[in-house]
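Entry 12.
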Amino acid sequence: MIRVILAEDMHMVRGALVSLLGLEDDIEVVADIVSGDEILPTVHHHRPDVAIIDIDLPGKDGLTAAAEVHEEVPETRTLILTSLGRPGTLRRALAAKAGGFILKDAPPNELAEAIRGVAAGRRVVDGQLALAAFDSEDCPLTAREVEVLRLAAGGADVVDIAGRLFLTAGTVRNYLTAVTTKLNARNRVDAIRIATEAGWL
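Predicted 3D structure (C-alpha cells):
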C-alpha cells in the first residue's frame, strides 16, 4: 500500500482528489491538509511514501515545503501538483528535488500512475513540459533578485522588502532597477509580469 498525504487548499479539488485516490486499491490517503505550513509536521507524523503538494498554498509555498521534506524526511518522495504548466516552474520544482510534477488538468489515471512512479523512486514529469523546460531560457536573475521581485509581486513596498530581507531601502531599489534592466522591462510591474509568465517567481 502506498501511503500519501495531500496538500491542496481548494476544498472541492482536495475532496475530489481524496475520493479519486480512494478508488485505487494500492493507494491510501493518510492525511489531507490546506496550508504549506502543515506539510512538514504532517510528513513527520505520518511518514507517508509520497506527499502530493500544490505549489500555491497559504503560508509556505509548495516548492519550499517540498525542499524541506527532501532535506528532513528524504524517504518521503514529493509530487508537485499544479495548474502552472510553465517551464520555469518545472525547473524550480526539480531544483527543490521534487520526485514528480503533474498538471491538475491531466487525466485522473495519470495522477495514480505518477504516485506509483514517484513511490518507486522514478522521476515523473509531463513529457511536453519537460521538453519546453529544456528549450526555454534560463532565468537571468540572481536568487536575491528573484526574492526581492517575488516580495514586490506580493504587494510589499521597498521599505517592507528592506525590513524583511535586512537590507537598506537603497539596496532594494538597486535590486529592482537591476531586475527591470535585465528583463528589458518598462517598469517594476512589467518586470513582475515577465518573470511570472516565464515561471521564474
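Annotation: The chain has ten helices and six strands. The radius of gyration is 18 Å.
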